[in-house]
Structures are given as C-alpha cells and as structure tokens.
Amino acid sequence: MSMPEHHDLNSGNQEPNLQNVNAPVPPPVRGGGRSPFSLLVAAVVAAAMLYVGFHMARRSGAIHGPAAVTKSSVAPDFTLDSLDGKKVSLSEMRGKAVLLNFWATWCGPCKIETPWLVELQNQYGPQGLQVIGVAMDDSGKDDIAKFAKEMGMNYPVLLGKEAVGDAYGGVPALPESFFIGRDGKIVGKIMGLESRSEIEDSIKKALDTKTGSNRTVQTPVAVAVRK
Questions:
Q1: Which of these ranges, 98-102, 143-147, 218-222, has the smallest mean pLDDT?
Q2: Are strands 79-81 and 129-135 parallel, antiparallel or unpaired?
Q3: Alpha-carbon dihedral angle through residues 161, 166, 169, 171, given to the nearest 10 degrees
Q4: How far is it, in rounded angstroms, from Cα 147 to Cα 216?
Q5: Angstrom distances, CA of residue 145 to CA of 34, 90, 105, 133, 142
Q6: Helix H segments across the chain?
Q7: Chain segment 55-77, per-residue pLDDT in tens
C-alpha cells in the first residue's frame, strides 16, 4: 500500500535532509556554575513574561488562532487581490455555488486536481458554479500567474493570506476545498486529493442546497501537510 503524497507548506518541494541523522549530538551547554535554584527562577520568570505577553497580544487582536469551520456554518467572508489586480470578496458570490480551493504552486496533488477544476468550471459554470483558487504559497505573483496560465485556470486566482487560511481552520493540508451553497453556507469539505467524482458530487450538493444533504468528504488520498 503506497503512502499518501504530502508536502511541507514551509519548505516547498524539498525532501527532509537526513544527511546528519547519525551525526554526534553536541554535549549540553553548561550553566556556567549557576545554581539550579537560580536557573529555575529565571525559567519561571521567562515563562510568566511569555504568558502575559501572549494574552495581551490576543486581547489586542494581534494573535488569532484558526477558527472552527463546520458544515452548515456561514463561510467566512474575505477580500483578496486577484492576479489581474482586482479586489475579490467571497460575499460577491452569494447566489452561486462556490468551490473554494486552497492550493500552492509547489503542491504535487494540486497539479493533478487543477485540470479537473478547470473541466468542472466549464461543465457546471452555466448552472451557477464558481471555482475560486486561493494560492497559499510564498511564490511571487509572476510565478503564480505563470502556473495559472500553464494549467489553463479559467477561474479567479487570488493571492492568499494567512489570516484567510486561519478563518478556514488553518488549512493544515493542501489541496483543501470548501463547497459553499448558494446561501453562503458550507455544505462540504475535501482535504487532500480525492477523485474527480467525489469533487463533482460535492459540487452538485452546493448547487442543490435545498436537499439539505451536507456530507463532508474525508479520507484524503494525498495531501500536502503543514508542519
């Protein structure tokens, strides 16, 4: 059984460097003759300062943890820049079924999935589907635009921000797609690379939100994992 393909969001396509796994571990740094009690006091003070600073930052709004996004909840709104320089807001899509796809240029599974999204946009666009791609990597705008052109992406490609990813649960793996009904509520989610038919089934649920059938698709075949 083959292991799922995955990618680190911070290191791109690079494989882990195992060259120095068996290298000797350097000895611990000595405390310079300081007593264990003084070291303990210093550690407690440092921990207290970090605790106070963290909670002050959270209270001021400087730090926000990933939000919990569940089925039937209203999809968090956002406004991002598109590749053509326009401001695009999710709320502008109300009345359409939206496939919100988080991806990255270095993500192998994304390169397999993207042609399907192009085909599905062509197939279901006349019925009210709007695919939106949110690029979640550090590549420059030119690199993302080149990738989008090579893949023939026929839907809006937006330049992602960490705050938007956090609003959707942190986006721990790529690709990750949210299926949003015409009423703006989330009806399903796929994390990782699933089959085209699974994606299509979720699109149909988003298009036909009156059925109330909101099964979340799980068990990804291949994911790009954030570490």
A1: 218-222
A2: unpaired
A3: 40
A4: 29
A5: 57, 21, 10, 12, 5
A6: 36-60, 108-124, 141-151, 162-167, 196-207
A7: 343 333 333 445 567 777 999 99
